[in-house]
Design goal:
This protein is of the alpha+beta class. 19% of the residues lie in helices and 31% in strands. The chain contains 4 helices and 4 strands, in the order ααααββββ. The two termini are 22 Å apart. Residues 30-124 form the YchJ-like middle NTF2-like domain. Pfam families: SEC-C, YchJ_M-like.
């Protein structure tokens, strides 16, 4: 984030994008804003924020400490689709990460609910067959570098 562009790939500066949510100075007004802020919170290992925005009925045994651990080397976020209702919403996304030097894709359709003017992540449907990403060598790298896959993460 050396140019201070937000990690959620909105194109906005972090200070005007996800930081107000992370510092609890503002609340996401849509489920997509919450999803983007959670992605950047995973990148920044902000376990307190992730825990606070995870609906209590769906947390199970998760702890702030577990959510604070660096689990992946996150590289890019692609929003596939968003559906927002009054108190329910869905965001389908692909989050690209490096694991053991290989670029992988976490593809999920996340469920969100809104209670007392606050959006919460509940759970999601995963697409495990897309873990490899199946990227062609001459395609743009999904990590967001702007380079061809073969010259970047391929």
């Amino acid at each position: 984030m050396n140019d201070n562009t937000c990690l959620c790939k909105s194109g906005k500066q972090y200070e005007t994008c996800c930081q107000p949510f992370h510092s609890l100075k503002a609340k996401p007004s849509t489920c997509e804003q919450l999803m983007r802020s959670r992605y950047s919170a995973f990148c920044l290992q902000l376990g307190d924020y992730l825990f606070a925005t995870y609906h209590p009925d769906f947390r199970g045994d998760l702890t702030v400490e577990q959510l604070s651990e660096k689990s992946m080397d996150w590289k890019n976020l692609q929003i596939v689709s968003t559906e927002t209702g009054v108190d329910k919403g869905f965001v389908e996304f692909k989050a690209w990460y490096l694991l053991d030097g290989e670029l992988n894709c976490h593809h999920e359709r996340s469920n969100f609910i809104k209670q007392q003017d606050q959006w919460f992540y509940c759970d999601g449907a995963f697409y495990p067959n897309e873990k490899s990403g199946k990227i062609q060598r001459n395609e743009n790298c999904p990590c967001g570098s702007g380079q061809k896959y073969k010259k970047c993460c391929g």
